[in-house]
Amino acid sequence: MTGMTYEEKVGNTVICRCEEVTLSEIRDWIGRGYDTVTELKHVMRVCMGPCQGRGCRDIIMREISQAAGIPLDRVEAGAVRPPVKPVKTRLLASGDD
Amino acid sequence: MRLARLRARVMREIETDIIVVGGGPAGLCAASEAASAGAGVTVVESDLHLGGQLVKQTHKFFGSREEFSGIRGYRIADLLLGEIKERGSLVETLTNTTVTGYYPEDRTFTAMEGEESFFRIRARGAVVATGAQERLIPFPNNDLPGVYGAGAVQTLMNVYGVTPGRDVLMIGAGNIGLIVSYQLMQAGVRVVSVVEASSRIGGYWVHAAKIRRLGVPILLGHSIKEALGRDVVEGAVIMELDEKFAPTGAEFRVDCDVICLAVGLTPTNEILSQAGCRMRYVPQLCGFVAERDRTMRTSNPAFWSAGDATGIEEASAAMVEGRIAGLCAARSLGFPARMEKFDEYWARLDRLRGGEVGGRIRAGISAVTMEQVHDAL
Ligand SMILES: Cc1cc2nc3c(=O)[nH]c(=O)nc-3n(C[C@H](O)[C@H](O)[C@H](O)COP(=O)(O)OP(=O)(O)OC[C@H]3O[C@@H](n4cnc5c(N)ncnc54)[C@H](O)[C@@H]3O)c2cc1C
Ligand code: FES
Known about the structure:
Chain A contains five helices and two strands, in the order αββαααα. By secondary structure, chain A is mainly α. A two-stranded antiparallel sheet of chain A has the order 1-2. In chain A, helix 2 packs across helix 4. Chain B has two domains: 2-133 and 265-368, FAD/NAD(P)-binding domain (3-Layer(bba) Sandwich); 136-261, FAD/NAD(P)-binding domain, CATH 3.50.50.60. Chain B has ten helices and 19 strands. In chain B, helix 2 (25-36) packs parallel to helix 8. Classes of the chains: A mainly alpha, B alpha/beta. The interface between A and B is large, with 33 and 44 residues. Bound molecules: flavin-adenine dinucleotide (FAD) and FE2/S2 (inorganic) cluster (FES). FE2/S2 (inorganic) cluster binds next to loops of chain A.
């Protein structure tokens, strides 16, 4: 990160660690009008990693709120689908025990 | 051969009257209360141990006497586990098991024990007491090894007896930041300083006084600008903020090998949203929580909720909410619950939330409390 301005470094900060998505990528898409978590999920897989958004949903909602001027309690949070923790597909396919 | 294969494909299924998701103070109290009315309860806990956050707390608790103030957190967990034991076979506990989902179409939970065993749980009622998760804040280099959440630091130290490093920069002067700072110092780790973005200390004064006496500066109106280091944390840049949290331009560098984030918790609510419970964002309760009536029942009549999952508060309140949820869930399922306890529990909650400190919580609670809407199941 040497040689970068502070702003560039902030933009390079990884927000969704599971899917390796940075703040500037998220801000770009919000700038193009993708101002719900569901839309951002579809375009860049945020909130779809192994932690299912536990690590990033909160920060992304704050970004949407600030950038799009939507109060935080109005930002669409996206459906939280099962499983809340990764499950090996083999287990799902076979039925265990 | 063919038949055996087919049989293996039928997934194991557990049936219970009430499933309690989360075995922290709220969940354990809910389980004990429901079982005391005669309901069969299955407590499911992700962790290897029951007790939730209490297990990590080596300090003496604040709160009221009924809720064990003055007793160290992990001892409170032992007392609750003793109470559960007295309920005998009515309470089954599954540890190292995560409830991974709820499927409203077939009213079924899925759960995974460890990483290898996946099964279904069917219950007539559910108490969701999944507690809270840590908030994180973004700053450059926050992915360097050496950046920890306060919960991880507590687990390392108080559960596994390992210190995270030598020199710690603590971000956040709420109770968690202050208590973990003190615990680090007790373990011989140096706390370089505690920085707090707001202009006042969020935690209780006794905790702040303890670490001030030991010479640790608490810098109000400051935050972390970036972490420094090539492969691991070697330091951080601290910036000054004005009342609107905008940087003033003043900044300085500190040397540290650990940056510990204690910037707040937010309710864990996945299972409640999967169950279609009406959720609302309530800033005073620190995130999205389910609307509920005074029996802690949500808009989905088969779901109750309690503890930090319904709003970040304290173990003392979590335990009483758990008791209310357990009692009322049992009653709605037709068990002879002693409902005279209901008013007593609410009196305790009102006491815990009394005074000026409780004002914020009271406002948050009134924003999500709805009229009682459901009858017995
Ligand atoms: C440093 C610190 C100091 C504190 N000091 C005090 C104090 O002095 N006094 C006080 O009253 N309070 C204190 N608290 C607060 C108190 O610990 C919490 O309010 C309390 O533990 C909340 O209880 P709970 O049962 O709601 O949640 P938790 O204790 O968080 O328990 C929830 C449990 O649910 C489990 N879980 C979550 N999701 C799932 C799932 N899908 N499947 C299975 N299990 C799941 C988790 O593993 C966890 O064990 C402190 C907290 C911290 C962090
Ligand atoms: S951090 Fe985004 S899905 Fe895990």
